[in-house]
Amino acid sequence: MKFTAEQIAGILEGEVVGNPNAEVHKLSKIEEGTKGSLTFLANPKYQQYIYSTEATIAIVNKSFEPESPISTTLIKVEDAYKSFSKLLEYYNQVKLMKSGIEQPSVIGDDVVYGDNLYLGSFCYIGKNVKIGNNVKIYPNSFVGDNVTIGDNTILFAGVRIYSESEIGNNCTIHSGVIIGSDGFGFAPNEEGVYSKVPQIGNVILEDNVDVGACTTIDRATLGSTVIKKGVKLDNQIQIAHNVVIGENTVIASQTGIAGSTKIGKNCIIGGQVGIVGHITIGDNVRIQAQSGVGKNIPDGVAIQGTPALGYTDFNKSYVHFRNLPKIVADVHELKKKSKQQN
């Protein structure tokens, strides 16, 4: 796709300084700009590159005035960083603007779908599925029976949505995600042999949820595993059966959450955190990376460590831990002096 400086300025409500017909078809860092690329200058630290970059167009702040001649066409805006981000979002929307049903693909009985559906090749849509408007389902994806998918939701290639799952509006589900697989439910008999406990619940993703690549969200044993509005999940996260994650909580990669745990809204959970089952974590909680959480956490607390404790207490304790060899040596010396005095 090619865009002129004039078109880009129209999108960003900016002013062109230079050639309004200059064309770009790719993006670049300012220090790595090449002909036909669009870049931006927001951080003064990179201002030197505006004079040497070969990028065809650069987005700059309105306050920027070149101190030497430049060959790049400028688009002046109020905030170059925000404008470049807006342009990336627009570019993504254009890039994903697909529609139509590719073949081969399978659509089951009693499937209902809205306007502008894109269904990539080698997709399977089960029976009695309901799909909203402007939904994009990329190739090699599976949608099981009785699934509901809301408006403007995107399923990237290779997503698996098991039966009975409910996906809201404006959700983005990346490649390799599995939603609705069985929860880890087994019960031992008298001989110690484990038998599977049927998992007959479902998964509900509310609106505006993002799920990163290769994340798995298990169906409930009974009832629902619920991911509430605005939750953002990174890649490679495991969410077990009957977990509930509150609105606008964000969770980083490789975190594992065991069954029936409830997490509040507006929480921030770092990478590689382990959370045991059947506990409650309050609203606005901050959990540092690689923490192990084994008990209920009240609202507004920041924790770290394994087992996790208060963030400030952890840092104080860590100072002592680093000095532990010296502290032990001092204790031995005090004992030695005490014996000599006695």
Write a concise synopsis of the structure shown.
The chain is α/β, with parallel strands linked by helices. Helices cover 16% and strands 29% of the residues. It has two domains: 3-95, MurE/MurF, N-terminal domain (Udp-n-acetylmuramoylalanyl-d-glutamate--2,6- Diaminopimelate Ligase, Chain: A, domain 1, 3-Layer(aba) Sandwich); 101-314, UDP N-Acetylglucosamine Acyltransferase, domain 1.
Report on this model:
The N and C termini lie far apart (88 Å). The chain is built from four helices and 40 strands. Strand 39 (302-304) and strand 40 (309-310) form a beta hairpin. It has two domains: 3-95, Udp-n-acetylmuramoylalanyl-d-glutamate--2,6- Diaminopimelate Ligase, Chain: A, domain 1; 101-314, UDP N-Acetylglucosamine Acyltransferase, domain 1 (3 Solenoid), CATH 2.160.10.10. 16% of the residues lie in helices and 29% in strands. The protein is flat and about 90 Å long. Strands 8-11-14-17-20-25-28-31-34-37-39-40 form a twelve-stranded mixed β-sheet. By secondary structure, the protein is an alpha/beta fold.
Question: Which helices and strands appear, and what pairs or packs with what?
Answer:
Elements: E1 3-4, H1 5-12, E2 15-17, E3 23-24, E4 26-27, E5 37-41, E6 57-61, E7 73-77, H2 80-95, E8 100-101, E9 106-107, E10 112-113, E11 118-119, E12 124-125, E13 130-131, E14 136-137, E15 142-143, E16 148-149, E17 154-155, E18 160-161, E19 166-167, E20 172-173, E21 178-181, E22 186-188, E23 194-196, E24 202-205, E25 210-211, E26 216-218, E27 224-227, E28 232-233, E29 238-239, E30 244-245, E31 250-251, E32 256-257, E33 262-263, E34 268-269, E35 274-275, E36 280-281, E37 286-287, E38 292-293, E39 302-304, E40 309-310, H3 311-322, H4 324-341
Parallel strand pairs: 4-5, 5-6, 6-7, 8-11, 9-12, 10-13, 11-14, 12-15, 13-16, 14-17, 15-18, 16-19, 17-20, 18-21, 19-24, 20-25, 21-26, 24-27, 25-28, 26-29, 27-30, 28-31, 29-32, 30-33, 31-34, 32-35, 33-36, 34-37, 35-38, 37-39
Antiparallel strand pairs: 1-3, 2-7, 22-23, 39-40
Domain UDP-3-O-[3-hydroxymyristoyl] glucosamine N-acyltransferase non-repeat region: 22-89
Pathway: Bacterial outer membrane biogenesis; LPS lipid A biosynthesis
EC number: 2.3.1.191
